[in-house]
Amino acid sequence: MKPPWHLWLIGLLSLLWNAGGAFDYLMMKTGNAAYLAQLTAAQRAFYEGYPLWVNIAWGLGVWGAVLGSLLLLLRSRLAIHAFALSLLGMAGNFAWGFVISPTPMTALMADAGAVPLLFTVAIVVIAVLLLVYAIRMTQKGHLR
After folding, report:
1. Over residues 69-83, mean pLDDT
2. CA–CA gap between residue 70 and residue 6 (Å, rounded)
3. Cα–Cα dist 56/92, whole Å
4. Is the pLDDT of residue 138 over 80?
5. CB proximity list for 137: less than 8 A, separation 6 or greater
6. Which residues fall within 8 angstroms of residue 72, CB to CB, at 6 or more apart?
7. Quick one: 141 exposed, middle or buried, by C-beta within 10 A (0-12, 13-18, 19+)?
8. What is the DSSP secondary structure assignment for residue 140, as one 8-state letter?
9. CB neighbour class for 101 (10 Å; exposed up to 12, middle 13-18, buried from 19)
10. pTM for the full model?
């Protein structure tokens, strides 16, 4: 069955979107000085203080999303599992950042206005929509 044109568009756009998250992850994990210079001392301390399980969750969130996008482009139904894994990782990361952490992310974002919080919401909404899209494309027989 020939896949619809939007499968390629959504796959490519999602890969570009998720590559942004992968870039952020790599810059943070490699300690890129120029990238880290954008953060306040409190923000750097927050990220450097991640417990191991949060680092794992963050990695699952980022790399699960990248893998999901690649699998979408490869027309594999395994994209569903990758996007679901990504959402699970995000849930852990955001649970730490907004609920469990001694310094919630909302406090670290307070000076920046609503943009960082809205961007975080957009990340979750897009991840959910990509999972739903992969499920629907599988149901229609476009992902094998």
Report:
1. 98
2. 15
3. 9
4. yes
5. 3, 7, 72, 143
6. 7, 10, 11, 14, 79, 130, 133, 134, 137, 143
7. exposed
8. T
9. middle
10. 0.94
| Distance separating the N- and C-terminal Cα atoms of the chain | 10
pLDDT, one tens digit per residue, over 5-63 is 999 999 999 999 999 999 999 999 999 999 999 999 999 999 999 999 999 999 999 99
Tell me the CA distances in angstroms from 54 to 11, 34, 91, 100, one per residue in order.
27, 24, 10, 11
Tokens of 10: 């959504």
Show the tokens assigned to 127: 């991840």
- Predicted pLDDT at 110: 77
Residue 27's identity, in one-letter code, is M
pLDDT tens digits, residue range 106-133? 888 877 778 888 999 999 999 999 999 9
Give the Cα separation of 88 and 91 in Å (integer): 5
Which burial class, exposed, middle or buried, applies to 39 when counting CB atoms under 10 A from its CB (0-12, 13-18, 19+)? middle
